Amino acid sequence: MDFGLVRIWQDGWVGAILHGATITIAVGVVSMMAGAVIGTLCGVIKWARIFPLTLVIDLYTSLVRGVPELLIIYLLFFSSVEFVTRVATAFGYAELADRGYAFIIAVIAIGTISGAYSTEVIRGALASIPAGHIEAARALGIPGTRIFRRIIVPQMLRIAIPGMNNVWQTTIKDTALVSVVGLQELMRAAFVGAGSTRNPLIFFLIAALVYLVITLISQAGFDTAERLVKLRSRK
Q1: Hey, how many other C-beta atoms are within 10 angstroms of the C-beta on 181?
Q2: pLDDT, tens digit, 9 for 90 and up, residues 58-97
Q3: Whole-prediction pTM value?
Q4: How far apart are CA 202 and CA 6, in angstroms?
Q5: Of 111, 173, 202, 207, which shows the fewest CB atoms inside 10 Å?
Q6: How far apart are CA 170 and CA 172, in angstroms?
């Protein structure tokens, strides 16, 4: 074990793991942002029951949540990589496509998955707002935009934050799946290091520890955000 840890340090694997962790966080954050945008739009549409968009969103969420995440990544990557490579090569950007396409497809895939779960979180949060609050505001003649901004959004955020925390935790763990497309994120770095040094236990334990640190820090951040929203709503 000591020899393994010394070798990991001396051979520069610590830097590779930290770089992989950075890629993991970047994919997770960008995917979560994309998923939050998708989830908010789709969640509001489902809550407002805008036909026929509601049917399209129901199909989207049911399909994404009913299919394994790894299969979604495979489908998106292998159905498009050849076409993108040909186009990039024709315009002289073959090297750029090789370096960046794995990251782009990872964000699209994880963002699509995150968006499906975020949709249900937002829809559920909106549905939990007492209808009497909105009806009372309308009875007082408050404009619809102000009702949405001052009554609906604050309550939705307070209810949705715990659910979005769960979506984030799932999203950051789903990033481990994109190693199959060659992206050098944390899991890929651990896998390469394990194969090169023949110390898989050490590398996978380090990867597990890094994932745990990321999730604990983000958990603390969501807890703080939830407390701030609750304090603000009481003022």
Answers
A1: 19
A2: 999 999 999 999 999 888 888 876 766 666 666 666 565 5
A3: 0.86
A4: 11
A5: 173
A6: 6
Residue whose structure tokens are 């899991």 = 187
Distance between CA atoms of residues 235 and 232, nearest Å? 5
Q: For residues 25 and 186, give the distance between their C-alpha atoms in angstroms, rounded to a whole number.
A: 9
Contact partners, residue 147, CB within 8 Å, separation at least 6: 134, 137, 138
- Which residues does 190 contact at the CB level (< 8 Å), separation at least 6? 17, 20, 203, 204, 206, 207
Domains of the chain and CATH, by start: 2-234 (1.10.3720.10)
* Residue (of 85, 67, 80, 68) closest to 108 by Cα position: 80
Name the token pair of 38. 């998708």
Q: Which two tokens stand for residue 203?
A: 């590398």
Give the model confidence (pLDDT) of 16-46 as tens digits: 899 999 999 999 999 999 999 999 999 999 9
Name the amino acid, one letter, at 102.
A
CA separation, residue 33 to residues 22, 58, 103 (Å): 16, 21, 15
Q: Is 91 helix (H, G, I), strand (E, B) or coil?
A: coil
CB–CB of 66/135 below 8 Å? no
* b/e sequence 183-195, b meaning 16+ C-beta within 10 Å: bbbbbbbbbbbbe
List the one residue out of 183, 164, 171 whose CA is nearest residue 119. 164
The structure tokens 């390469």 sit at 192
